[in-house]
Design a protein that fits this description.
Oligomer: single chain
Strand order of the largest sheet: 1-7-13-12-4
Structural class: mainly beta
Number of domains: 1
CATH topology: Jelly Rolls
Order of helices and strands: EHHEEEEEEEEEEEE
Number of strands: 13
CATH architecture: Sandwich
Radius of gyration: 16 Å
Helix content: under 10%
CATH superfamily: Jelly Rolls
Distance between the termini: 35 Å
Length: about 180
């Protein structure tokens, strides 16, 4: 497996969150997200905005953070990670596309990375499809439909301590912003 090489060593240092011995597993989170996604009444209650994403916080299993998110046509997250939390998401309506990197990235000590070739992965997730991801997962999610909304269910454990946001130009990934929960 090829790994990225650091172009700079400056950057924030944030330790990965600890996991409780009774923490929900990724399988538990995926089961939860699938059940919520299949609840058409709940999904149908989410207010949808034609301009921006909408969301409602849910009670996740075992103290997990969970969200029901509405995606208007063309909405996307930009490249980001989940601050050391593992998680899942399931498409409840419509279709989402996930672009991700097939390599764990360092979580601290860098500002810019030159990525090796063949690290990009793309996954299309139609209604009912979902996936789990680990603590060092970097991705972006988008609703590529020109006309239809999508809705998804997301769950993270431990609850998100931060989100790191990145910009991407060609093979260069650059850390742009670190957001704390009070900022979103």
């Amino acid at each position: 497996m090829t790994t990225p090489t650091a172009a700079s060593t400056a950057g924030p240092t944030t330790a990965a969150p600890t996991v409780s011995p009774t923490a929900p597993t990724a399988a538990d989170l995926l089961d939860f997200a699938r059940k919520v996604a299949a609840d058409h009444a709940l999904v149908g209650e989410l207010p949808l905005d034609p301009e921006g994403r909408t969301w409602v916080r849910l009670e996740g299993p075992g103290g997990a953070e969970a969200w029901l998110i509405g995606w208007p046509p063309g909405a996307e997250t930009g490249w980001h990670d989940h601050g050391g939390s593992y998680g899942v998401f399931v498409t409840a309506a419509g279709e989402l596309t996930e672009s991700s990197l097939a390599v764990p990235l360092p979580t601290e000590g860098w500002r810019s990375l030159e990525l090796a070739e063949d690290l990009d992965r793309e996954r299309i997730l139609p209604e009912g499809a979902g996936r789990a991801f680990g603590r060092s997962h970097v991705h972006q999610v988008e609703n590529r439909s020109p006309t239809g909304h999508a809705v998804s269910v997301h769950a993270y454990y431990p609850p998100l301590p931060l989100i790191r946001r990145y910009s991407r130009k060609g093979s260069t990934l650059r850390l742009e912003l670190v957001e704390k929960p009070e900022e979103w």
